[in-house]
Design a protein that fits this description.
Length: about 150
């Protein structure tokens, strides 16, 4: 198995996901009947790609995310300019990405359970401006707690 190539593929996926480029991230998946979606995003302070696990023609690449919580939006016409909400749930999640080396063509990530979209906290300045007051306070508290987990 090409463990380094698999690791590089997962890094491409995570970088695209964290940059908010779901189209590029999803192009790296194979076997999806429906592309992964969610009604919210999980703002993420950081990620770390862990050591590859090789077994039976498949490489599993664990990725450790420091997640801040959940963010979602309401219709701006109904709630006004501060239409984004945030609920803190600071934690470390590890997601395992599988890459199957038995297929022809370029390596792709096997479509299986994928968590909601991770957006890099540092990329969310425009969204944070649209938080309501309670969400903004929760965000600042979550950022302090998450920095302790890194």
């Amino acid at each position: 198995m090409r463990a380094e190539a698999a690791r590089s593929l997962v890094k491409q996926f995570v970088d695209a996901e964290m940059d908010g480029d779901s189209e590029t991230a999803w192009a790296l998946l194979t076997g999806c009947d429906v592309l992964p979606t969610a009604d919210y995003i999980e703002p993420t302070l950081s990620y770390e790609i862990l050591d590859a696990i090789e077994q039976n023609g498949r490489v599993t690449i664990p990725v450790r995310y420091v997640v801040l919580g959940k963010a979602w939006s309401y219709d701006v016409r109904q709630v006004g300019q501060h239409n984004w909400r945030f609920v803190p749930d600071v934690r470390v999640d590890t997601v395992e990405f599988s890459i199957d080396d038995d297929r022809e063509g370029p390596l792709r990530i096997v479509c299986a359970y994928l968590p909601p979209i991770h957006d890099a906290a540092m990329q969310m300045a425009g969204t944070i401006e649209r938080f309501d007051e309670e969400s903004r306070a929760a965000w600042e508290d979550a950022m302090r707690k998450a920095r302790e987990l890194r």
